[in-house]
Amino acid sequence: MSPLGNCRKCKGWGFQMRQTRNGRLKRGRDCRRCDGYGKRVRIGRRLYNATVRLHREGTR
Q1: pLDDT tens-digit readout, 9-38
Q2: Which of 34, 48, 52, 55 has its CA at a distance of 20 to 30 angstroms from the CA of residue 24?
Q3: How far apart are CA 51 and CA 60, in angstroms?
Q4: pLDDT of 6 higher than 90
């Protein structure tokens, strides 16, 4: 399983879809939540990163 998941706002595309006046879909601006990457850090990886950071601070 990957430590990264799809962004919930853009559904992993990295951008929002826009419609032109005649209804054709176009690429919109980059997603603000994921900065255009389309990925997010999952909860388990976020917890793992926090525990590693705490452990490293305690040993120094």
Answers
A1: 998 999 988 889 999 989 889 999 999 999
A2: 34
A3: 15
A4: yes
Evaluate if residue 60 carries a pLDDT over 80: no
Following CA atoms 25, 31, 33, 36 in sequence, which dihedral angle do they give, to the nearest 10 degrees? 130
> DSSP secondary structure string, the chain?
--SEEE-TTTTTSSEEEEE-TTS-EEEEEEPTTTTTS-EEE-HHHHHHHHHHHHHHHHH-
Listed residue (29, 28, 32, 37) closest to 5, CA to CA: 37
